[in-house]
Amino acid sequence: MVIVGDDPASRVYVNNKKKACEAVGFYSEEYALPASATQEELLDLVNTLNSKADINGILVQLPLPKHLDDKAVIAAINPQKDVDAFHAVNVGKIMLCEYDFLPCTPAGVMEMLHSYDIPVEGKECVVIGRSNIVGKPMGMLLLHENGTVTICHSRTKNLAEVCRRADILVAAVGIPKFVKADMVKDGAVVIDVGMDRDENGKLCGDVDFESVKDKCSFITPVPGGVGPMTIATLMKNTLKACKLQNNIND
Ligand code: NAP
Question: The domain at 104-227 falls in which architecture?
């Protein structure tokens, strides 16, 4: 795990990942660089980790401080150790449905749908948000399972109307309590990816849980929903990376 600077949310995420490694018995190392770290220092560290045989997965916690180029850093990670699945090689493989790793948050959401026996095939799936780490791959995974997918963003017209079509609605917007009851169809499955802070600084999601919960058939809470699934998928990806790098077959 590589963390640069002292963003409190990033610190929490890295600590949670560290705890998860301990819980499942993975060896882990943390590299905490100061906010003043240079691009060269960060790339040198990634290169060192690429060549360490006892490290199978590399996580660079995003966002990086503004003076650093996150795209160049992600591109420097050996794709076989890219357990976040952010590298262009892994993103391309996901598009082609021939992947080694799936991006952790969307894959965690799919795992939840599977474990609750919620079918995706033929369903109207609406994803709000088109980021490279959540929205876009989320849409792709739903499409791979034969959902009819619409991806919305800040320029989408009539957002509420589009959302009301959804049998499965995924919110990945980053705005606290953005999805209100009038945006949700009766009986819809609502997945809240958001990790936001409300007006009192309390952790909340992108969905207004209280108003939406009685309208839908399933809803994920924040905290305790998509977040833990993301970390569980990260552990799964890391185990897979270790197996691939050591030619271990299941
Ligand atoms: P992001 O990169 O900021 O993307 C937000 C997306 O929401 C963008 O595509 C943006 O559209 C869209 N959006 C913003 N305002 C909108 C509006 N008014 N109407 C419709 N769409 C709008 O965020 P992200 O990294 O995807 O993260 C989204 C949320 O998920 C955040 O709360 C983040 O903390 C959380 N998150 C949680 C986990 C987890 O493990 N639970 C993991 C990752 C992220 P444009 O593209 O047009 O700007």
Answer: 3-Layer(aba) Sandwich (3.40)
User: Does 80 participate in catalysis according to the annotation?
Assistant: no
**Is 84 a known active-site residue?**
yes
Express each pLDDT in 18-68 by its tens digit. 999 999 999 999 999 999 999 999 999 999 999 999 999 999 999 999 999
172 Cβ inside 6 Å of ligand 1: yes
Q: Where are the domains of the chain?
A: 1-80, 104-227
Query: Could you tell me if 123 and 149 are in contact, meaning their C-beta atoms sit under 8 angstroms apart?
Result: no
- pLDDT (tens digit, 9 = 90+) per residue, 175-218? 999 999 999 999 999 999 999 999 999 999 999 999 999 999 99
Domain 1-80 falls in which CATH fold? Answer: Rossmann fold (3.40.50)
Tell me which residue has its CA closest to atom 1 in ligand 1: 131
Query: Which one from 80, 81, 82, 84 is the annotated catalytic residue?
Result: 84
